[in-house]
Design a protein that fits this description.
mainly alpha, Rubrerythrin, domain 2, Citrate Synthase, domain 1, three-stranded antiparallel sheet, 6 strands, globular, binds s-citryldethia Coenzyme A
Length: 438
């Protein structure tokens, strides 16, 4: 049962003034103090850089317990979805709030298939990008430009059905754009999606098949891709999802809001970490040592170096997604001759994890492997180049971004997000003519 209940009051005393602020409790007994009347009642605002203690909204979509390592989409544990669901079922669950019936799933899947191809003119975009362009630059540019091909998406008063069709466009085309950016980077022809393939099969087909060749997607690889996309599908108010909600609160269309989320995700502290992790593992593999180097660099007092794939704003224990990925990867490759050699990087990752978790620096700060520490092993296993790893994260996260954008728009009253600040700059001064400046 969804819950947001007033469970009492917090008293705030400022000088001789005392005010009461309501305390609310959510479904999983998380508590928040509602400060929406604070400034009007006291002339004060809260200040919380990085929003370490600040909730931007209530949400029915995803629940995380960072201390217990719990992650649930619409109440369903990630471990069950990873084992039993498809990525498309999970996307439906996140966006519409329930698991689809077989009819609903068929209609959703058909909608994605129909919307997989890109308008022929979009292919010209790729001619303009240098071949070394980072695929995230291509993805955010082309996703933002999709509104030019679907102008109905610009109408902020659009009805539900058109939001669904935009969702189809985004979920399906983000995958096609990603595949095309890879093909552009290796100088190979674009491969059209095929109706007979389901979502993940079509991605592998567009990435790795050749014109005229009858490509058969490997079932182990297809299942591995489903798994890694499911695990990335949502994660409540992370940096990129909060970006999508903030941009969307200005009544910005869904394509542009998601393009903003892609840009936020690109950062190495966020979705770009999976690329950093793989580059670190490959560097260790090539040099034959350096595990201590990366750990010591990260622990050096005042160091700006971070051990990529470790630490999390919310998880202060093992990221449940990392646990699922580690076990799934081992099951996928162990003992299979066709995947020989892929286990080397897993061995290095396991040694790195074991070595770091012996250091008080990591233990005392509760820094454990996060989703990005192991996800790259699966992408590497699928033959996806390292620079594409953040794009794979984005493809997985598109349903979550859509779900949050939709939820934000349904919030009453609709309100543009506009944080306050405390000004700390120079007091009032005057213009100085240039001849008097020093
Ligand atoms: C994702 O928010 C989400 O949900 C994100 C995500 C999602 O699904 O959307 O889960 C996906 O982005 C996972 C995180 C991927 N990023 C990385 O792996 C980059 C490495 N990790 C960090 O940079 C860091 O842990 C963050 C950014 C993830 C979290 O940073 P916080 O919460 O702001 O913590 P902090 O920077 O204040 O660090 C607290 C302390 C500091 O040391 P002291 O000042 O106390 O001495 O821990 C240290 C930091 O220096 N620290 C690390 C570290 N992470 C934190 N030191 C070394 N290596 C690290 N990885």
């Amino acid at each position: 049962m969804n819950r947001y209940e007033n469970v009492g009051k917090a008293e705030l005393k400022i000088g001789d003034k005392k005010i009461e602020l309501p305390i609310y409790e959510g479904t999983e007994n998380e508590r928040g103090i509602d400060v929406s009347t604070l400034r009007e009642a006291t002339g004060h605002i809260t200040v919380d850089p990085g929003y370490m203690n600040t909730g931007s909204c209530t949400s029915n979509i995803t629940f995380i317990d960072g201390d217990k390592g719990i992650l649930r989409y619409r109440g369903i544990p990630i471990e069950e979805l990873a084992e039993k669901a498809s990525f498309i079922e999970t996307a439906y669950l996140l966006i519409f709030g329930k698991l689809p019936t077989s009819e609903e799933l068929t209609a959703f899947s058909n909608g994605l298939t129909e919307n997989a191809p890109l308008h022929e003119d979009i292919k010209k975009f790729f001619d303009g990008f240098p071949s070394a362009t980072h695929p995230m630059a291509i993805l955010c540019s082309v996703v933002s430009a999709l509104s030019g091909y679907y102008p109905y998406s610009l109408d902020p008063k659009r009805d539900e059905s058109e939001i669904t069709s935009t969702a189809f466009q985004l979920i399906s085309k983000a995958r096609t754009i990603a595949a095309y950016s890879y093909r552009k980077s290796v100088g190979e022809p674009f491969i059209y999606p095929r109706e007979k393939f389901k979502y993940c099969q079509n991605f592998l087909h567009m990435m790795f098949s050749y014109p005229g060749e009858d490509y058969v997607p490997d079932p182990d690889m297809t299942r591995a891709l489903e798994l890694v996309l499911i695990l990335h599908a949502d994660h409540e108010q992370n940096c990129s999802t909060s970006t999508v909600r903030l941009v969307g609160s200005a009544r910005t269309n869904l394509f542009a809001s998601v393009a903003a989320g892609i840009c936020a995700l690109w950062g190495p502290l966020h979705g770009g970490a999976n690329q950093e992790v793989m580059e670190m593992l490959e560097d260790i593999n090539a040099s034959g040592e350096k595990i201590d180097h990366y750990i010591n660099e990260a622990m050096k007092p005042g160091s700006t170096k971070r051990l990529s794939g470790f630490g999390h704003r919310v998880y202060k224990t093992y990221d449940p997604r990392a646990k699922v990925l580690k076990e799934a990867f081992h099951r996928l490759v162990h003992g299979k001759s066709k995947f020989r050699g892929k286990e080397e990087l897993l061995e290095i990752a396991l040694r790195l994890e074991e070595r770091a978790l012996k250091e008080d620096f990591f233990i005392s700060r509760k820094l454990y492997p996060n989703v990005d520490f192991y996800s790259g092993l699966i992408y590497n296993f699928l033959g996806i180049p390292t620079a594409m790893f953040p794009v794979m994260f984005a493809i997985g996260r598109v349903p979550g971004w859509i779900a949050h954008w939709k939820e934000m728009r349904e919030t009453k009253p609709p309100r543009i997000g506009r944080p306050r600040q405390i000004y700390t700059g120079p007091a009032k001064s005057s213009y100085i003519p240039i001849e008097q400046r020093t």
